[in-house]
Amino acid sequence: MSNKDNLFATPLKQVSDFQFDDAVADVFPDMISRSIPGYQTIIETIGQLAASHVKANTNVYDLGCSLGAASFSVSRHCPEDHCNIIAVDSSAAMVARCQRKVEAFQLPNPITVKQGFAQSEDITNASMAVMNFTLQFIPPPERSAIIKQIFDGLLPGGIFVISEKIRHDDDRGNDVINDLHLQFKRQNGYSELEISQKRAALENVMLIDTFDIHQARLKEAGFADVVMWYRCFNFMSLVAIK
């Protein structure tokens, strides 16, 4: 059972940049469910997309896997012994906990957990790749290269699922969706102090793009079509089809 996220509940003398360390890993399921509207819907749908698009004897890459929610969803939804799932994360704390979860369950499809940067992963024989709220933590100058890397490693007809927090083109519209997201977090029990301190921690770490930038980047990499299948406030999930 997940611990409650109270990492920013008391005043901090100095708010450090956000890190996916042991403290975050310990409360991550609670943090993510209270911060991202529709997160469980996204995870479930990733599994449903896998059931429809993952081919037999191919690889599925979960880049920035955190505790492996997307990987587990793919494993459950695909036929038994259908695919190999490679779950990659740069955080030692996340990888250790994800590995323990993998070892605790008998999975329909195997999950290999690796510590490393998504940018360094060799994508091969893939019918699906996933970046679930990962690209926003990768330095912007490196984003086009990793998208092209994923495209090149996908088989014809393969899909890339990317979920991201986004910003609106116009400041007024951006204020509207940001305010809705703040209300969502307040309704989930976060105080103004917690919201403010976490925002400060993420300011230099999570750099978000607009939908148009994401779409242009995916098209430039070579994807034939980009479908926004989910959108709520300033969060979206896309399926890019090779």
Helical content band:
40-55%
The parts where pLDDT drops under 50 for at least 5 residues are: none
- Shape, per Cα inertia axes: globular
Distance between the termini: 38 Å
Rg: 18 Å
Give me the strand/helix succession.
Answer: HHEHEHEEHEHHHEE
Pfam families: Methyltransf_25
Domain Methyltransferase: 60-158
GO molecular function: carboxyl- or carbamoyltransferase activity; S-adenosyl-L-methionine binding
GO biological process, one term: tRNA wobble uridine modification
What attributes characterize this protein structure?
single chain, 242 residues, alpha/beta, Rossmann fold, 7-stranded mixed sheet, globular, SAM-dependent_MTases_sf, S-adenosyl-L-methionine binding, carboxyl- or carbamoyltransferase activity, CmoA, Methyltransf_25
Describe the 3D structure.
It catalyses: prephenate + S-adenosyl-L-methionine = carboxy-S-adenosyl-L-methionine + 3-phenylpyruvate + H2O. InterPro entries: CmoA, Methyltransf_25, SAM-dependent_MTases_sf. Homodimer. It holds the Pfam family Methyltransf_25. This protein has helices spanning 22-35, 39-53, 69-77, 92-104, 143-153, 171-187, 192-202, 211-221, and strands at residues 58-63, 83-89, 111-115, 126-132, 154-165, 225-232, 235-241. It is an alpha/beta fold. It has a domain at 39-167 and 206-241: Vaccinia Virus protein VP39 (Rossmann fold, 3-Layer(aba) Sandwich). Strands 3-2-1-4-5-7-6 form a 7-stranded mixed sheet, sandwiched between helices. The radius of gyration is 18 Å and the shape is globular.
